[in-house]
Inverse folding.
């Protein structure tokens, strides 16, 4: 039975098909304010449905690859990125999320450090958007982005996620910038610093941030659990 | 093309099919020691492949139901349970996890309170097993159970999961029993009590456990975040 000739109730009976999508979050300076904000790359649809709308990078699963490998390949093909932090986020499969037959999307997410994000490809069909200004996306991708943002904010509470965006050492001000970018609001520096220093998951190093400043800030190191909460060590 | 007549390379080209499975954890007293231990219900396979082996409850997705609804229906049909705590765990879809064509399983998990678990159906094809003594299961279901146990133990660190197994009020000893059942080892009562009382997520009530004891223990209440970390409020 070809989907082309099927009527609505016949299409409802077709088995769902499967796709892999990725949400890639990176911190980048806002061009207007210079503050770090949260960005993600989107891909322009070059066919129907949703022709010309922006969508999350994604595609079908190839016969011999794992779900994680499919996500990594998709990411590589669309953005030229190979993020260290890539894990399964959620499977979306509501019956109304796409024109039938139903597509179930297994969504992976990547948290990308600034040095990695700088390597991303951009062209007329791949562009970076501020996470809070993506406009109307194809399919239910607005909901997926909203869900990913919600999960990201929840992860802040566990005190591990910020370090996925930072290098192996960082200043306390850099951690605050990550929190501010993810939460979308300014935080009091003194309060934040106090709270962070009482966290068990970071410790001071003997190093200081390089640069031309009179009193360079101290660098810290993350010592907590792997922030990829979902991934079995053998799946990494 | 019927899978029955396809050769290996043809089967590899078939699109993956989709199934929903559920892991249902409940605390039950061990019949030998009386200690609370972690149990899960399994279903006997009554057809090939893996005829007669035990497997996680599950089945296909119906055309008009959401993934979560399919998980709840499967659970209801096999065990007669309707758990309050049911959320998506992970999607398993490696190319070698089942005889081809590939099946991608979206696994939900339920944490069931003792009063709910007592209502579960059991017959010759549905039985409860201690989570650490399930034997050899069909498909990759041993790996899925192992993954679910790993996630469950990780959730203990966040200090929220124990309350999914308990009622709205509980004694500190009951919380320790949950930790002991999930971790599979005894904990020092005095140390545990001290750590727990410094947690921000529980507070004492003015009530005491009913029963015939001389000094009935105080009941506490959980005040932290919803332990379902994965589920968007609108998905609950």
């Amino acid at each position: 039975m070809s989907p082309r000739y099927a009527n609505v109730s016949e299409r409802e009976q077709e088995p769902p098909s499967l796709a892999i999508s990725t949400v890639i979050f990176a911190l980048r300076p806002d061009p207007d304010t210079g503050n770090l904000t949260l960005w993600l790359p989107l891909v322009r649809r070059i066919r129907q449905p949703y022709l010309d709308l922006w969508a999350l990078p994604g595609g079908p699963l190839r016969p011999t690859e794992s779900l994680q490998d499919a996500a990594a390949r998709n990411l590589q093909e669309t953005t030229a990125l190979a993020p260290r932090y890539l894990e399964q986020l959620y499977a979306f499969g509501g019956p109304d999320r796409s024109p039938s037959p139903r597509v179930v999307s297994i969504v992976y997410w990547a948290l990308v450090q600034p040095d990695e994000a700088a390597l991303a490809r951009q062209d007329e069909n791949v562009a970076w958007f501020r996470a809070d200004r993506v406009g109307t996306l194809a399919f239910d991708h607005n909901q997926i982005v909203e869900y990913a943002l919600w999960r990201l904010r929840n992860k802040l509470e566990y005190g591990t996620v910020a370090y996925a965006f930072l290098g192996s050492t960082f200043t306390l001000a850099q951690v605050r910038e990550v929190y501010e970018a993810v939460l979308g609001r300014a935080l009091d520096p003194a309060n934040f610093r106090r709270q962070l220093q009482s966290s068990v998951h970071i410790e001071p190093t003997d190093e200081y941030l390089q640069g031309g400043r009179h009193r360079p800030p101290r660098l810290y190191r993350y010592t907590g659990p792997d922030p990829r909460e979902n991934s079995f060590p053998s799946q990494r």
